[in-house]
Design goal:
There is one protein chain. It contains 15 helices and 29 strands. By secondary structure, it is α/β, with parallel strands linked by helices. It folds into four domains: 49 residues, no CATH class; 321 residues, TIM Barrel (Alpha-Beta Barrel); 84 residues, Golgi alpha-mannosidase II (Immunoglobulin-like); 134 residues, Sandwich (Jelly Rolls). A hairpin with a 2-residue loop joins β2 and β3. α1 crosses α2, α9 packs across α15 and α14 packs across α15.
Length: 671
């Protein structure tokens, strides 16, 4: 492949760390770690850092010197330019953040598309099926670049591609924005690039510009258009990370950054050369040629932070109004992103004012013909409702086939979502997070003084109890047919709304509640009301309080629960939910958890006040992928609750594996 090189200069301000000649005390250390945890979106744990402070304080004087704070600094590290600290260009760009995010916050729901020459392989190479993301097949199967060019790119000719059909399907699903992979990690540009000939025009027989066609279709149908661009990884370039079979000496480590290791000192220069010669010029090319509304970056930790700054600075100089996601590096984006493939959603609204979830229809982002793990329509409607409840956007991914058609499974899912959105879109678009505690009937989104109750577990008598609302209700109605509903106070800050006996929509019936003024909940109320007229009520781990070194997972298929339950967490580790009942209840208690042979094992106790249930951890066979673990309910017994507030806790008793288990939720079934 011939590379056309554009020389781009960038000035990097070298930062220096502040030295603490006499050391810092515990409070100063806390302040430093609070800022760090805030930056990475994690809850600050004072117990954890108190223990770590004591461990680092080698002489016991209550102060940490530079050497004690950074023991790794005593080892040899690679020398590389440091990022600018709050550079003027970035500070200036953030002054208009709210304006450029206006359309994005209103849109709420978008389509993410992973499509490239890898789509032709459909997740299989030489008879071997890929177990991970199909779009990663070049790296996962270490296909030589010349082979990939000859046997994959040279055969990519998606003559059935129809941009208008794609965007009509996007719009019919209720989606308001569209993001397409312009260049994924395989490095091939899906547009005719003047920067590098590893592109769709020179490497494939397809003689069209699909990016231009999609941009035009989006304009035609009123959809905001954007690009995914892999700025950090490019397996076709010697400076693009991770391709060790074509480019010996390329780093493979991820955490901590490879750039800290002296043996990769030369690669820092190769990486910077890639950023200057390809990443920045191509980014400027697509920004100027196609005028996207949003740029979606990825995997920023694969290059030093200063190189991500170079990329963003170059783009901001020519396109100050483009929305940028968080995967350009810590704190540089306009909004936060969840993990890949979220199956559940953390309360991101507590840490981020704008954020986005990126689920995909099965377990791959690119097309994978053998992956038939597609979630049902109801899964995505529920996830969309929960995303809206917590103030986020949902960018839902599909992977079109190598011939240019969208897979039938994805068409079916999108069509089903679209039918629901046609009726209930008002409860999603332009909404923000609710001030209310978790509701066992489903979720609640908000727009002004309207609350949208997403009732996914319909009460047997049709009476929905809305908990924790201090503001009086003015009126209520079914969103689908505007039918008025009766309502009444159910005691302090609770309200009963009488719906029909059967759920009008078995997936998600939306009830609109208009309040007399701004809806206000009880501040910091995390207590869940349990009711007697819902058959099954669920308390997810993300609605719990975790202690003793435990933390929430990210919500992906592999960590949708509480993680880190190792030997160090056995003494103080616990998961706790606060629940409230207004009338006596008798319920069956199940604990849903993941435990895998060879990884987990031991004994645990679930306590409901003074009622205790102790059991052995039951393991499942190890799957061929951590994404395929099963979240299995384990019945523990009956619980009886009297009116009042109760505590449900999970604690470890004995550990026999590397970890105890990963609890995900509590199920409470009416008896």
């Amino acid at each position: 492949m011939k590379t056309i090189i554009n020389i781009i200069t960038a000035s990097i301000l070298l930062g220096t760390a502040t030295a603490f000649a006499e050391g810092i005390d515990l409070e100063q250390y806390f302040a430093e770690k609070r800022e760090y945890n805030k930056r990475i979106g994690r809850e600050f744990d004072p117990k954890k850092y108190t223990k770590l402070f004591a461990k680092l304080d080698q002489n016991g004087d209550g102060l940490l010197t530079d050497e004690e704070r950074n023991p790794a600094s005593q080892t040899v590290k690679a020398s590389y330019p440091q990022p600018e600290k709050d550079p003027a260009w970035f500070v200036e760009s953030m002054k208009t953040r709210d304006q450029r995010l206006e359309w994005y916050k209103e849109a709420k729901f978008g389509m993410f598309v992973h499509w490239g020459v890898y789509s032709l392989l459909a997740g299989e190479w030489n008879g071997e099926v890929a177990t991970g993301y199909s779009e990663h097949i070049l790296r996962s199967h270490q296909i030589p670049l010349d082979t990939y060019a000859k046997d994959v790119a040279a055969k990519f000719n998606p003559v059935k591609f129809n941009a208008d059909e794609w965007i009509k399907l996007c719009k019919a699903a209720g989606m308001k924005y569209f993001v397409i992979t312009s260049k994924h990690h395989d490095g091939l540009a899906m547009w005719p690039s003047d920067v590098n000939e590893w592109d769709i025009a020179d490497a494939t027989p397809f003689e069209r510009d699909p990016m231009a066609e999609l941009r035009d279709a989006c304009k035609k149908h009123g959809i905001h258009f954007g690009f995914y661009y892999s700025q950090a990884q490019d397996w076709s370039h010697p400076g693009g990370q991770r391709n060790t079979w074509d480019f010996p000496g390329n780093p493979t480590q991820k955490n901590p950054g490879w750039y800290e290791d002296p043996k990769f000192a030369e690669h820092i220069q190769r990486s910077e050369k890639y950023i200057k010669e390809k990443s920045i010029p191509q980014l400027l090319e697509i920004v100027e040629r196609y005028q996207p509304d949003i740029i979606w970056f990825d995997t920023p930790s694969w290059v030093p932070l200063y190189q991500n700054q170079m990329v963003l600075k170059a783009m901001r100089e020519v396109a100050p109004n483009i929305v940028v996601n968080s995967r350009i590096g810590y704190g540089l984006g306009d909004y936060a992103s969840t993990c890949d493939q979220p199956d559940d959603i953390q309360p991101y609204q507590k840490k981020h004012d704008v954020w986005e979830g990126i689920p995909t229809t099965n377990l791959s982002y690119g097309y994978h013909a053998k992956d038939k793990s597609h979630k049902p329509v109801s899964f995505f409607i529920a996830l969309l409702a929960k995303t809206a409840e917590r103030g986020g956007n949902m960018l839902m991914n599909i992977g079109p086939m190598g011939n240019g058609l969208i897979a039938p499974e994805d068409v079916e899912i999108l069509t089903g979502i679209g039918k629901w959105m046609d009726v209930n879109g008002e409860s999603i678009y332009g909404t923000t997070h609710t001030p209310l505690p978790p509701q066992t009937f489903g979720h609640v989104s908000r727009k002004g003084n309207k609350l949208y109750l997403h009732v996914m577990r319909w009460p047997v008598d049709g009476k929905i109890t809305l908990a924790g609302l201090k503001t009086p209700i003015a009126k209520a109605w079914l969103l689908a047919d505007k039918q008025p509903l009766d309502f009444s106070s159910a005691g302090s800050n609770d309200w009963n709304i009488q719906g029909p006996g059967n759920a009008p929509d078995p997936i998600n019936t939306v009830i609109v509640v208009e309040t007399d003024g701004e809806p206000i909940g009880i501040e910091n109320d995390e207590t869940t009301l349990l009711v007697s007229n819902i058959q099954e009520q669920r308390l997810h781990a993300f609605e719990s309080k975790v202690e003793g070194g435990l933390k929430w997972g990210q919500g992906s298929p592999r960590d949708n629960g509480v993680v880190g339950w190792n030997k160090g967490a056995m003494e103080d580790g616990q998961v706790e939910w606060s629940v409230r009942v207004e009338a006596p209840l008798e319920l069956q208690l199940d604990l849903v958890y993941v435990a895998v042979e060879g990884q987990h094992g031991g004994r645990y106790t679930v306590s409901v006040d003074d009622q205790r249930f102790t059991a052995n951890v039951e393991t499942q066979p190890k799957p061929d992928s951590s994404k395929k673990v099963k979240y299995i309910p384990h019945t523990l017994g009956k619980v009886r609750l009297q009116p009042g507030i109760h505590s449900i806790t999970v604690k470890g008793e004995e550990i026999t594996g590397k970890e105890l288990f990963m609890p995900s939720s509590i199920l409470l079934q009416r008896l």
